[in-house]
Amino acid sequence: MLALSRKKHEAIIINNDIEITILDIKGDQVKIGIAAPKSIPVYRKEVYLQIQAANQDAMTSDNSEELKKLF
User: Is residue 18 part of a domain?
Assistant: First the structure.
């Protein structure tokens, strides 16, 4: 992991097309802004993990009866 120090209004660039800017710092919270192409999804980690779990559940569950109802 690369660890960087940034001050308010400073930014980092990832892969020439993603910019992460420190917008505000209040106590132990840091507000960041992310500018990325629309083709690159950006999620909070907890949301991303929920999406991954839901996708895994969908792949492992037996939906054959529900699929038959569609036809």
Answer: yes
Looking at the domain assignment, is residue 4 inside a domain? no
Q: Is the Cβ–Cβ distance between 14 and 20 less than 8 Å?
A: yes
Question: Counting every residue, how long is the chain?
Answer: 71
- Output DSSP code: residue 67: H
Whether the full predicted model's pTM is greater than 0.85, yes or no, is: no
For each of the chain's 71 residues, which pLDDT tens digit applies?
999 999 999 999 999 999 999 999 999 999 999 999 999 999 999 999 999 998 888 887 776 677 667 77
Q: What is the number of domains present in the chain?
A: 1
DSSP line for 3-57: -----TT-EEEETTTEEEEEEEEETTEEEEEEE--TTS----HHHHHHHHHHHHH
